[in-house]
Known about the structure:
Layout: H1 9-24, H2 29-44, H3 51-63, H4 69-83, H5 87-96, H6 101-108, H7 113-128, H8 142-151, H9 156-164, H10 167-175
Helix pairs in contact: 1-2, 1-3, 2-3, 4-6, 4-7, 7-9, 7-10, 8-9
Amino acid sequence: MSVIPSLSREESWMRKSALHYLGQRSTSVANLRQVLQRRARRRLGPDVDVAEMIERTIDYCRQYGFVDDTSFVEARLHAGRSRGLSARRIGAALAAKGIDRTLMAQVFAGEDRHDAEERAAARLAQRRRIGPWRREERAFEIEKEIAVLARGGFSISLARRIITGDPDEIRALLEA
């Protein structure tokens, strides 16, 4: 029979805090570390060294599958693509959450980048009601609509193809 050492009050609180946070949202290991540091500073004060306690808590969460960077990146990639975000925008958001570039590259390599970018650009155009989804009565300027997609992180050539291309072909991208 193995004996599990009891946790200190602070470490027990930290583990509960991490589990509560992870119960509300998915996050990366680096972001969880920042959250725990911020919470520990508020609760325990700035003088207490909590680095080892945080690492033990993160190891516990990893061990039981509560936090996993690969699944986090896959979920963010899927959600971003369905919202019409470019790989560049998704990558920037993931980098802000502390995700390693090599992990991002591995997950992004699993998709057909060209097709995914085209579908995402078409989805953004649909959301913004530009290009083939523009209302007939609305006046438009092609360069302004292209600029919307370019600010979204898409290349100018792709943006031009989505805005000025055959509306039926562009709409078909979303049905594929």
